[in-house]
Design a protein that fits this description.
The protein contains seven helices and seven strands, in the order H-H-E-H-E-E-H-E-E-H-H-E-E-H. By secondary structure, it is of the alpha+beta class. It has two domains: about 1-125; about 130-290, Histidine kinase-like ATPase, C-terminal domain (Heat Shock Protein 90), CATH 3.30.565. The protein binds adenosine-5'-triphosphate and magnesium ion.
Length: about 290
């Protein structure tokens, strides 16, 4: 019995070395896991960098391409207008028609290039907001003037409700006008009879809501969510006869976000659609920095 302590000590040291061995194995395992995690992080970093470069490249490609398209398009437009003005001799009625086709196509292409350039600038973070105080009456009368030539030739009424009792806005009126112009031109495109109505009202004490409602073909509910993405168009017999790229609404959404606001729609097929934009009455720089 006297050797008991020795036994105890032996047992204890066996246990200890087992624990130690286990700890070493555990540490080795942890080291391995750590290295695995580090490797994964490095891979993620590389992928994020690659994605960033791809996105940069896309934005740069879009802006170079759009920029390079403008010069030849400008030449086509001015030569077409020289021909129409018959500065180099008279045109036959058929030739007048053909030159008109050339101008219309060139103008459409030029609009598309402008949209692409805007999108590229937004993606590259190079679009600047220039806020200023302005009156909604002025904005509405500018819109009325802009659409008068189109409305005069259609069966659809364009009604711009007087924006009474609304405060002055401090925001980028050009961007806001571009959003409303896109909404109105869509509504006029997709409405064959009835009216397109533009209104403005206070959403709350900080924000104002602009809405463009039409009595047009409407949009099925399952497509509402995707509609503000690039190149999304709804398949319909009317669509096939109309031109457009599917970039208008995507630009509206991005411009609204740049102004610190949001866009949305309510629409029912066969009844009509309402597209709206809600923006702060006074633009604050941090809205942009947050995003
Ligand atoms: N008021 C509306 N009524 C019915 N459909 C609409 C209306 N506004 C938009 N849409 C649908 O949403 C699609 C996308 O609109 P968006 O303005 O982005 O593109 P687009 O008008 O086809 O082309 P773009 O504006 O680039 O010239 C339209 O093609 C149409 O299918
Ligand atoms: Mg459009």
């Amino acid at each position: 019995m006297t050797d008991l302590p020795v036994n105890d000590a032996l047992e204890e040291s066996a246990e200890l070395s087992q624990v130690r061995a286990e700890a070493t194995a555990l540490r080795a395992e942890l080291d391995e896991t750590n290295q695995g995690v580090l490797a994964l992080y490095a891979e993620l970093d590389t992928q994020a960098e690659e994605l960033r470069q791809a996105s940069d490249l896309k934005s740069r490609f879009l802006s170079y391409m759009s920029h390079e398209f403008r010069t030849p398009l400008g030449s086509i437009l001015s030569i077409a207008s020289l021909l129409t003005d018959e500065l180099d001799g008279p045109l036959s009625p058929e030739q007048h028609k053909q030159v008109a086709f050339v101008s219309t196509a060139a103008r459409e292409l030029s609009d598309m290039v402008d949209d692409l350039l805007d999108l590229a600038k937004i993606e590259a973070g190079r679009i600047s907001i220039s806020p200023a105080w302005f009156d909604m009456f002025d904005l509405f009368s500018a819109l009325r003037g802009m659409f008068r030539p189109i409305v005069d030739t259609t069966a659809v009424d364009l009604i711009l409700e007087e924006p009474v009792g609304l405060p002055k806005l401090y925001t980028d009126d050009k961007k806001l006008a571009q959003i409303l112009r896109n909404f109105i031109s869509n509504s006029l495109k997709f409405t064959q009879r009835g009216e397109v109505r533009v209104s403005a009202r206070l959403e709350n004490e900080r924000e104002v809501r602009f809405a463009v409602s039409d009595t047009g073909i409407g949009i099925p509910a399952e497509l509402h969510a995707a509609l503000f993405e690039d190149f999304v168009q709804v398949d319909s017999p009317l669509q096939k006869r109309l031109r457009g790229t599917g970039l208008g609404l995507s630009l509206c959404k991005r411009f609204a976000e740049l102004l610190g606001g949001r866009v949305g729609l309510e629409s029912e097929p066969g009844v009509g659609s309402t597209f709206y934009v809600v923006i702060p009455i006074a633009f604050a720089q941090e809205h942009v920095d947050e995003s």
